[in-house]
Specification:
The chain is α/β, with parallel strands linked by helices and 317 residues long. It has 2 domains: 165 residues, Rossmann fold; 116 residues, Nitrogenase molybdenum iron protein domain (Rossmann fold). It is built from 11 helices and 8 strands. The strands form 2 sheets. It has a 4-stranded parallel sheet, sandwiched between helices. A 4-stranded parallel sheet has the order 6-5-7-8, with helices on both faces. Strand 5, helix 8 and strand 6 form a beta-alpha-beta unit. Helix 2 crosses helix 6, helix 3 packs across helix 4 and helix 9 runs parallel beside helix 10. It is globular. The N and C termini lie far apart (84 Å). The protein binds zinc ion. The site of zinc ion has 7 residues, from loops.
Length: 317
Amino acid sequence: MIVVSRRSLFAATATLALAAATRPLAVAAETRLPVVASFSILADLIARVGGERVTISTLVGPNGDAHVFQPKPSDAKTLAAAKLVFVNGLGFEGWMDRLVAASGTRAAVVVASKGVVPQKAEDEGEAHGAEAKAGHDHDHGAFDPHAWQSIDNVKLYVANIRDALIVADPEGREVYTANAAAFTSELAGLDAEVRAKIAAVPAARRRVITSHDAFGYFATTYGIEFVAPQGLSTDAEPSAKAVAALIRQIRREHITAVFIENMTDGRLVKRIAKETGVVLGGELYSDSLSPKGGPASTYVDMVRNNVKLLTAAMADS
Ligand SMILES: [Zn+2]
């Protein structure tokens, strides 16, 4: 008869638990789930949920523009090898259906924005027209696709990513669930941080201009007014008349800062600043992350970077 004392049983259990905890969690590269992300922001969200269990190929990388992306033959091969293809949806990736068909992939296509309450596209209708499209070739359709600019929406993205990964890789359920929960609580903290920072700016000062109408969800969620620029044509170099119209608008509408991503002509930017006294707020990241080492190489850093630039510019103009 073998007598096992309580103490040694406890010790044995503790040893087993320790062994389980210290077991290497790394997943061999060849057994990872191959997934495709349509653009860099989505890839970062998938990486946070999938961790080491997934290998992510990103079609539109850092500083890329998904609106005007033209898939290469190698992108079709990437899709063919994938088990899941993640897209934003809401008309953001107009090229994806054709790419999926051309690739012959059997991967499930997962719409990460599923469940988001879509906002109408800002550049719809005659109010803005061609001016609102200056410098950024949008083809939105009825809805604004930039839903990730609201952190609440990104919580839905994270849940959709988690659910899709669990279906494709049931063994990873615990990992995906834990990663999604940790990231979601980090996002809740980020949301509170953003609200506090913007609340510190008087409401009347929260009026800025961007050339890129990508901040509709951000505006609605956080109470900053992004005014569509008037007078800018789709020409590479705006005319004197267009610049004058923009300057009048900045004065008339009490704009506190200008963020014009595609206005690369430094002389023009300086002239507008000099004539209006408006703050030039720097570069906001809307549709893609920065490369690694840049100011917005993750979703969380992108939000922090944008809020830092926005609040600084609105505060001291
Ligand atoms: Zn865009």
